[in-house]
Amino acid sequence: MMCKRLFLSVLAVFSFQLLFAQPNAAKQPNIVLIIADDIGWGDIGCYGNKDVKTPNIDALGSSGQIFKNMYLTTSSCSPSRSSIITGRYPHNTGAPELHDPLPAKQIMFPEILRKAGYYTVLSGKNHMGPAIKKAFDMISLGKGPGAEEDWVSILQNRPENKPFFMWFASHDAHRDWQFDEQGTVHDPEKLSVPPMLYDGPKTRKDLAAYYHEVSRLDHYVGKVVEELKRQGVLENTYIIFMSDNGSPFPRNKVRLYDSGIKCPFIVAGPEIGSAPIEALFSAIDIAPTLLDIAGTNTTDKRLQGKSFFGVLQGHEYATRDFVFAEHNWHVFQGYERMVRYKDWVYIRNGFPERQNLAGESSKQFPAGKELWNAHEQGLTNAAQEDVFLKPRKAEELYRVSEDPFQFSNVVDVSSNQQMLAYLRKTLDAWIAETGDSKPEHPTPDRDDVDGKKLPGAWKKGEKPGECNSADSINRSGPIFEKDLKIKTPTNPYKG
Fold first, then answer.
1. Looking at the structure, do residues 306 and 331 belong to the same domain, yes or no?
2. What is the pLDDT of residue 377?
3. Angle, CA 347 vertex, CA 318 and CA 390 arms, to 5°
4. Do 207 and 65 belong together in one domain?
5. Is the pLDDT of residue 22 over 50?
6. Average pLDDT of 279-285?
7. Which pLDDT band, with edges at 50, 70 and 90, does 299 fall under?
8. Range of weakest confidence among 43-57, 324-338, 449-463, 475-489
9. Can you give the chain as a three-state secondary structure string?
10. 11 belongs to a structural domain
11. Given this model, what pLDDT does residue 17 score?
12. Same domain, residue pair 141 and 264
């Protein structure tokens, strides 16, 4: 009888402990996603930039994995973020253009995490509209010039009985520049000017200010890591660092070249390897991967991406053969589509009769203005004249290993015609399967090349994919070569 009472007493204590234990806190890892604003993939120290000072981000890269070929779905702020949060291509989100609010019907992976017991927070830049409120327990505008100053306090004031997901989105490094003591001062005279920019004093000063904001974000990345370590949860936390698009300079942001569409992407966390990853990945793969990390459902058909959690665990090397991206309206009219396959990038321009402009390539900002002035004086070289081309080539083809900036269009080279035909059909398949379409009545230019509003009434036009109700289409298009009923080029590296 005494043994039975003792057993029941122990059982009651154990049940009481279970009742008040932190649910899943020990099992479910925490996730911190840090999204930079307008930081190019090569503008971080661990990606080879010798000018910018980013010791804390570099340390993440040393302790985790650096992805060398993470491609965004678009190089434009709001549609890029909407694509990341939904795991869907921009024309499939219903918000493919700058400033389009994300429709409430779309899937949002933080909402799934929230329903699974995660405490979810967005702090800093939203730019996706009011519908995302349902995905987060807390939304903060952020504090300070870069909106990072409340990140540590948010970590300190979180519920202790829940795993957490933090969407920390800085305003660094978005124009206009703001300076404070948290950013490093960079000497304009000691910087290396990227080849697509004109090397002049205004551009150098512009770059130094940009690097100041990059380094300020790095400071707060360090503070987040310190706080996680202080709380004793760092070892059970995945930290992801990335950017939403390329740097805010001519031929970078908005464009489908690597300088615009490829982003820095670092993952550090439990049992993460340290070798750089060269395989191709798409930003739509982030949502299913983070859901896999959390151990939640990733079978929702609305997710167009493919989880790369197996890559992080070392079970897989690659998860896709193709990545696709799009350029839609961003202050100036645009419709471009891109596919990356192995060593090749193919771009199709829907408006070849137009200059390919963005606010960052106009005369509105110092580097753009200096580039335009140099061009008018005949001082620019071929690498710096892309934004002035009119008309443009309707198609572009690049061999990335030989031409990392995509300066030499080899679309007309005879030995590349087999590859060109293959990528044309691949892109056609993606457009058809995902319901993409070139608008018949597209959104017109809003500004002129001086950055001034054009006269008359302005309003948004037809969205890409709108005529096909693409926002309700879940097909992802080809991910693997085997998805295509097309003969693979016998020698994809020829030429």
1. no
2. 98
3. 155
4. yes
5. no
6. 98
7. confident
8. 475-489
9. CHHHHHHHHHHHHHHHHHHHCCCCCCCCCEEEEEEECCCCCCCCHHHCCCCCCCHHHHHHHHHCEEECCEECCCCCHHHHHHHHHHCCCHHHHCCCCCCCCCCCCCCCHHHHHHHCCCEEEEEECCCCCHHHHHHCCEEECCCCCCCCCCHHHHHHCCCCCCCEEEEEECCCCCCCCCCCCCCCCCCHHHCCCCCCCCCCHHHHHHHHHHHHHHHHHHHHHHHHHHHHHHCCCHHHEEEEEEECCCCCCCCCCCCCCHHHHECCEEEECCCCCCCCECCCEEHHHHHHHHHHHHCCCCCCCCCCCCCCHHHHHCCCCCCCCEEEEEECCECECCCEEEEEECCEEEEEECCCCCCCCCHHHCCCCHHHHHHHHHHHCCCCCHHHCHHHCCCCCCEEEEECCCCCCCCCCCCCCHHHHHHHHHHHHHHHHHHHHHCCCCCCCECCCCECCCCCECCCCCCCCECCCHHHCHHHCCCCCCCCHHHCCCCCCCCCCCC
10. no
11. 36
12. yes
Based on the fold, state whether residues 218 and 359 are members of the same structural domain. Answer: no
Instruction: Residue 184: give its domain's CATH number.
Output: 3.40.720.10
Q: Which of 430, 443, 428, 437 is nearest to 470 (CA)?
A: 437
Residues for the chain: how many in total? Answer: 495
| Confidence grade of residue 471 (pLDDT, cut at 50, 70, 90) | very high
Residue matched to tokens 């299913």: 288
